[in-house]
Amino acid sequence: MKITAAVLNEMGAARPYADSKPLHVMELELAEPGPGELLIKIDAAGLCHSDLSVVNGDRPRPTPMALGHEAAATVVRVGPDAGDFAAGDKVVLAFLPACGECVDCLSGRGYLCAPAAAANGAGRMLRGGHRISEHGHDVFHHLGVSAFATHAVVDRRSAVKIPSDIPPEIAALFGCAVLTGVGAVINTAGVTAGESVAVYGLGGVGLSALLGAVAVGANPIIAVDPVPAKRALALELGATAAVDPAEAPGAITELTGPGVDVAIETVGKVPVLAAAYKSTRRGGRTVTVGLPNPADLLSISPVSLVGEAKTLMGSYMGSSIPARDIPRYIGLWRAGRLPVERLLTSVSPLAGINSLLDSLAGGEAIRQIVTP
């Protein structure tokens, strides 16, 4: 079938993106779903720094690639052996379609699924090959989703059924921002009530982490970001203090003394990660969910890992199991404990996606939603 999608043909375009137009909204061919796959209609998709990092080249990917990985959708048609999905189901899409059969999947760590990671890195489907093409030439998939489109074919393990009454612009947030940020707090760091937390970077993932810290009763919670409007929102969402990065060391000392129990870094920049690590107390935990350029290296004193018993932890997809955690976080949202709707900056048509990239790159937006 014919679809419309936003395609990146070459990484590293110059800003402003409204002028250089790295994403081309164009007509493509979409194949029928194969075994274990779903044809879906995209209802809403979130624009995330993981999309921007492909556009600017920080996260190299094969091109041409149809971008987008955080979305809510409706099932249109199911392929053979697609489980209990049916046409009309409302779903949230997760960006790692865990295979369910490897050692990590079988041990309950599907977020470390090696076959899924290999498929995502190669821009292909979990079960092999591509389902998108232009004039007979393959177009690569973004994280098995390619959600900046009218329709997509996804593996059934990329989809989690949700109640039909959730607005799609809200539901989309649970596929990446909430899954990653809240998961980093609850699953990876295991933050408990009364522990002190610093969140570095207040985009969609960072503010989701802040919401997660509030939900579990962390105290104090220090939000760190250079953008005043984001700091103001952080205070409204429950942060004890919200400071510019230059003020963070003093604020953390004033509020915690020796440092925070847990620092969550969401920016994907080495200097920010180094500052987050330094901000933790003896025995503290630093969790990084940001995705820096693969060429960047972090330098820390290994003595601090031993003599101060500090821990540096990576968190991919918030160490989440989407089928378990997305319904759980939706339940917290319904109960008023995760007001993720406050993260929405705008809802805009797909045609304006390059201008939305500028707002994201300039730090002006938290979560912008695009609709086909």
Quote the average pLDDT. 97
DSSP summary, beta strand count: 18
Structural class: alpha/beta
Main beta sheet: strand number and arrangement? Answer: 7 strands, mixed
CATH fold naming of the largest domain = Quinone Oxidoreductase, Chain A, domain 1
Binned, the helix content reads 25-40%
Count of individual domains? 2
> What is the chains' assembly state?
single chain
**Uncertain residue segments:** none
Write a concise synopsis of the structure shown.
This protein is of the alpha/beta class and 372 residues long. It has helices at residues 17-20, 49-55, 103-106, 114-122, 168-171, 177-188, 204-215, 228-236, 248-256, 270-278, 302-307, 322-334, 353-361; strands at residues 2-8, 23-30, 37-47, 65-66, 70-78, 90-93, 132-134, 137-141, 151-155, 159-161, 197-200, 221-224, 241-243, 260-265, 280-288, 311-314, 344-349, 367-371.
Q: Any overview of this molecule?
A:
The chain is globular. 29% of the residues lie in helices and 26% in strands. The chain has helices at residues 17-20, 49-55, 103-106, 114-122, 168-171, 177-188, 204-215, 228-236, 248-256, 270-278, 302-307, 322-334, 353-361; strands spanning 2-8, 23-30, 37-47, 65-66, 70-78, 90-93, 132-134, 137-141, 151-155, 159-161, 197-200, 221-224, 241-243, 260-265, 280-288, 311-314, 344-349, 367-371. Strands 3, 5, 6, 9, 10, 17 and 18 form a 7-stranded mixed β-sheet that branches. The two termini are 16 Å apart. Helix 6 crosses helix 7 and helix 6 crosses helix 12 (322-334). With 372 residues, it is of the alpha/beta class. The protein contains 13 helices and 18 strands. It folds into 2 domains: 2-175 and 339-371, Quinone Oxidoreductase, Chain A, domain 1 (Alpha-Beta Complex), CATH 3.90.180; 178-317, NAD(P)-binding Rossmann-like Domain (Rossmann fold), CATH 3.40.50.720.
